[in-house]
Here is the input.
Amino acid sequence: MKAVRERCTILIAGSWNQEIFVPSWVRSVLGLDSQPTLNMILGNGVTFRLEWDETLLDVTPHQVLLSPAGFSDESFVAVEASAIRILKRLSETPIRGLGVNFGFDITEPPKTFDELFNLSDDGLISAVGAVVGFTTIARKLRVDNRLLNLTARRDGAPGGPCKLDFNYHHDAKSAGDAIENLENHVLTLKANALEFAEKLYGLRAEAT
Here is the structure.
C-alpha cells in the first residue's frame, strides 16, 4: 500500500481567521528559513494554501489542515510541531475538533483484503442488472481512549483498486486540549495505523 499525501494530514477544526495567515506571519511563527508561497484556491469558499519545503498548510474559516512533505517520521514530526506552534500563537481561537489522518492506496489488494468487500447481496445486485461502482466498509473503533474511524473502499469489481483510511479523532474543545492530544502523539498514531494495516489485513506501506 502507498501513502497518499493528501490523505495524511493533521486537521484542526475551529473558527479561523484566514487573514492572519499571510506568508510573513507563517514564516515568523513556524520559524521557517524562507517565506512560504501563498495561493488561493477557489471552490466552496476560498482556501488559503501556503507551501514550503513540500509541506502544505490549507486554511479555511472552518479548519487548518497540514500535510507533510512525505511519509517519513521526520515529516510528521515537523507538521506536528507546526500545528502546535499555530495553536499556541492563536490560543484564543475556538476549537471544535482534532483529526490525525493516514490514507493509503492499494492498487493490487491481496486476496484476503479484497474478499472483505464480497457482500451477501452481490449476486442479487448482478441479477437485477446493476453494477457496483464502489463498496465502502466503515468502522468506528476505540483505541486508547481515542476514536478511530477506519474506512476501507474498493472501486468496481473484485480485484479493483482499494483505499484504506485511518482518522484518529478527538473532540478538542480548546487550543490547549488540542495541543495535549497532539504533542508527541502523531508518530504513535502512525505506528498504530501501520500495525493495524498489517495485523488486520496483511498490508505494509511501501518504503519512502
Remarks:
- The chain has one domain: 2-201.
- Strands lie at 2-3, 9-14, 37-43, 45-52, 55-59, 63-67, 95-106, 134-143, 146-155, 162-170.
- The longest helix spans residues 73-89.
